[in-house]
């Protein structure tokens, strides 16, 4: 009897499962749909609707029933209305037609946008409704919202942020928006906006205290402050201070908090930090067909004596030679943003053009005038032994290098906009009397022009000039002459080979230099990029480049892989103008970072 019951029970379960499967299949088939969305007023609203619409984003996941499909449609209608309202289409009509008897269900959404509303009257008041005076209200230009302009909710929020920033820059760090009223004037098709601003108390910078300092001394930390006690609070100076702490590389986290002001109006400042390890070890690899493989490693300490002193030791080894460099820096030496620097370097090079053994020491001041401008000046003493085409000379050069640099680019290794300018001038005097006195000047510029909003296409341009005054080409130390060719100059030609050659096909160098490059940087995917490029340049025996002379030119194609440490670069180039029998048909370059 039990066996018969079990058999009947199993049959019932099988029948029930089959019925449920058929019902599920029927419901699934009935909820498939095709969407026809039309009438949206512009690409902006269409893009936002498609990003937020469940009918679009969940097209591959049909709802399980017709009821669920109806709910999805209703939800989308609300989302479409929100998008249209955000851009001023307040009178838009939205019609929906669907035929649930068809499979898949056709869903047609038609939008009739009507007339777009414009920005109407703008008013700023305190919470009591009294208009803000000119001392508190930002100018219309600062507000960025103009009466009569098409209404855009983002512009309203941007204007709101501009109000708070304006007050925060003028001693009101606790200002906030109490409420915002946007009233539709349907007759005039305008949106009148009123902000009630709680501008808070006027505050000045009070005493600054720190939490989390361990290795960094209090005096060195205070040297990073970008405000003076007693001045009106300015949120820009607060942010500059936070960035200054981060830029030291000594901290994992940095927060700056403005405390409520006391009866005297002074707001105590609290800076909380967590210190990171002050030491770093790193390195990199490179390769080119002319120079061979190379490697660089460094060790750096960023808080050697507790006052943000840095010491960086760099070792470089390659098939063409090796070097060891030590650079020490004392920040904020006597003046803020002025650093005292000392450097010592030993180097040996065995190049086609010459062989070099040199040791140099130097020191000077580096001035970070602004985030964009940098200046440096100092003195160097360099002892070198050079074998130039079988002729051996010893030089003892005293130099006074001066450098000015401007950098507005947005990334050190992979810039997509901005520009870089560098100017340098170095007079030399040979204490050994071999080379006499001469002056070397150089200028270089690069610019980065994004061709689309996403910056997937960037046109990069570079140019360089160099000139030497005093002496002749062959009286100059070989390492102080100008050369062109290689991965950082004219790609397609070997290192130093894009210029005049001697009888044994070795580069002779010159007293002046002219180079340039054009790249089209195309980001194909998030990690892969292609870079077609053309480089040109040459060196000349005269002090001034011959701008009418024929130049060496190379062209090629680069591959970029975006890694966590920066773009990995692979360039393949060939000479296209000026190739000689001694020049290879292909040059390959591998390194980290863009070519410029």
Attribute tags:
disordered N terminus; alpha+beta; 5 domains; Ubiquitin-like (UB roll); single chain; about 45% strand
Concise description?
This protein is of the alpha+beta class and 596 residues long. The chain contains eight helices and 26 strands.
**Quick one: CATH class of the largest domain?**
Mainly Beta
Mean pLDDT, to the nearest integer, reads: 92
Helix content: 10-25%
Q: Report the CATH superfamily of the largest domain.
A: membrane protein fhac: a member of the omp85/tpsb transporter family
Describe this structure in words.
With 596 residues, the protein is α+β, with helices and mostly antiparallel strands. The protein has 5 domains: 1-27; 32-112, Ubiquitin-like (UB roll) (Roll), CATH 3.10.20.310; 118-198, membrane protein fhac (Ubiquitin-like (UB roll)), CATH 3.10.20; 204-275, Roll (Ubiquitin-like (UB roll)), CATH 3.10.20.310; 279-592, Porin, CATH 2.40.160.50. Helices cover 17% and strands 44% of the residues. The protein contains 8 helices and 26 strands. The protein has helices at residues 2-31, 43-52, 54-57, 66-86, 140-143, 153-168, 218-222, 235-247; strands at 33-38, 93-98, 105-112, 118-125, 176-185, 190-198, 204-211, 251-258, 266-275, 279-288, 292-301, 310-318, 321-330, 338-350, 355-367, 373-388, 391-399, 402-407, 418-430, 437-450, 457-469, 512-523, 528-540, 552-563, 566-577, 587-592. Helix 2 packs antiparallel against helix 4 (66-86). It is globular and about 90 Å long. It starts with a helix and ends with a strand. The relative contact order is 0.06.
